[in-house]
Each structure stands twice: as C-alpha cells, then as structure tokens.
Amino acid sequence: MIRWTGSPSDSRAGRPGHRKAPYAWPVLCPYCNTDNDKVIDSRSSDAGKVTRRRRECLGCGKRFTTYERVEATAKLMVIKRDGRRVPFDRENIIRGVSSACGKRKIPEDIKQKVADEIEEELHKQFDREVESQVIGEKLMGRLRDIDEVAWIRFASEYYKFKSVDELKKQLELLDGKVRDVKDQQRLFS
C-alpha cells in the first residue's frame, strides 16, 4: 500500500480527469503548519521504492521535501529479549546507528542506507516475526564495515559488557575476523 501524502485541499482533486487519492493525508508545512502546498518536482529514488516530492507552501512560500515509501502489507513483529512483541520500526535502527556513530564523521546517507538494507533483508527473510537479536547482529555487521568505533559503541550496549575483560574479548574477535569485500560473493555460507 502506498501512503499518499498529497494535500486533500489540492485544487485539482475535484476536477474531472483528476482522481482523488484513496489515502489523503494532510501534508503540513514544517515552517508555518499550513495544509496548502503544491508539488513542484516528483522523482523516484532508491530503485523505485521511494518517491521524493519537492513542495512549495502556498501559505508562506517556503519549499520542503516529502518522501513516500511503500508500506509492507504484513507487519513484521519484533520479539524483544523479554518476550514482548512490538511492530518493526526502521526508526529504531536509525536511532541505534546514530547513537553508535555519535559525533563520528559518518554521512547521514550511509546511516539511512544501512537502515534501508537491513529493513529490506528482514522483510525478505522473515514473514511475520523476527527476534531483536537478529536485527542487532545485522546492524553490528554493517557498523563493523563502516566504522569500528561505532561498532564497539553499539556492541557495548548490545552485549551489555560487565567488565573491561569482556570488551577486550570482543575486540580480539573483531581483530581476528576477516572483513568481507563489498559486492564479493561469499566463499562459504
């Protein structure tokens, strides 16, 4: 299902030849909070998975960007360590990456790409439920390739190290692992 983010007050919506979208969510201007805008430019990105729309507020005249993503029809549930089940939320991955990276110089688009890749993998591999540990391990694998300090920061929260010795053991494991070369096929599964 595609969530339509166009303005329900769009002047074209009532005219013949223009059909009103089935899911009309108001798009509020982030500057003046007005629900009166027009689409200036619309582009597909992320191999057609996301639609990027450049809009201009008719109230204040400022421009802003909105993104539309296809929502999965079946919601993926995450099984937490304590047994609770919560809906999957990619924003949790982005928050985890951002907190692990902290003030490190890692571009925002790389963080978004990590979240996109993990979300896509999870929806391909799991139909209904996935354990939070699987998500954490996928994220740690990506962080290790991006920035080792971010990996350590995330791993320290993920593994809940109780001593420096436990952290040292993980660092030794990190040093002992050979990094995968991007776009190279795995030799052993």
**Largest sheet descriptor:** 3 strands, antiparallel
Count of alpha/pi helices: 5
Sheet with most strands: strand arrangement: 1-2-3
- Look at the structure and give the mean pLDDT: 79
Q: Any idea what the shape is?
A: elongated
Task: State the helicity in percent bands.
Answer: 25-40%
Q: What gyration radius follows from the Cα positions, in whole Å?
A: 21 Å
User: How many independent structural domains?
Assistant: 2
Outline of the structure:
The protein contains five helices and six strands. With 189 residues, it is of the alpha+beta class.
Description:
The longest helix is centred in the middle third of the chain and has 18 residues, at 108-125. By secondary structure, the chain is α+β, with helices and mostly antiparallel strands. A hairpin with a 5-residue loop joins strand 4 and strand 5 (85-87). Helix content is 37%, strand content 17%. The protein is elongated, with a radius of gyration of 21 Å. It has two domains: 1-71, no CATH class; 77-176.
